[in-house]
Amino acid sequence: MKLRFLIAVCAIVVGASSLTLCHPPTPTITKVEVPPYATVTTADATATIILAAFDRAEQAIQTRDLDGLLSLYSKRYN
Q1: What does the pLDDT read at residue 23?
Q2: What's the whole-number average pLDDT of the chain?
Q3: Distance of alpha carbon 58 from alpha carbon 61, whole angstroms
């Protein structure tokens, strides 16, 4: 009888602790940064264009501008 009780208590504890792991992902706001130790192997103009695109995306996300964000995606993207 004590063994069944112990198994039941263990099952409840394991079940309750596993439920605490079940939650939707928490959104985070991050910025794209190029660390100073990174080696950029492209032309400065290309890197500037790429970083500008990420900056526009970040601005669209912060202002909740879905059309502005979707404008950054290619029309041919499948």
Answers
A1: 67
A2: 78
A3: 5
Evaluate whether 29 touches 20 at the Cβ level (below 8 Å). no
For the chain, the 3-state helix, strand and coil shares in percent, each to the nearest 5, are 55, 0, 45
Give domain limits for the chain: 2-70
Q: How far apart are CA 38 and CA 21, in angstroms?
A: 35
How far apart are the C-alpha atoms of 10 and 70, rounded to whole Å? Answer: 49
Q: List pLDDT tens digits, range 42-69.
A: 777 888 888 888 888 888 888 888 888 8
User: In angstroms, rounded to a whole number, what is the distance separating the alpha carbons of residues 35 and 32?
Assistant: 10
Tell me the chain's radius of gyration from C-alpha atoms: 24
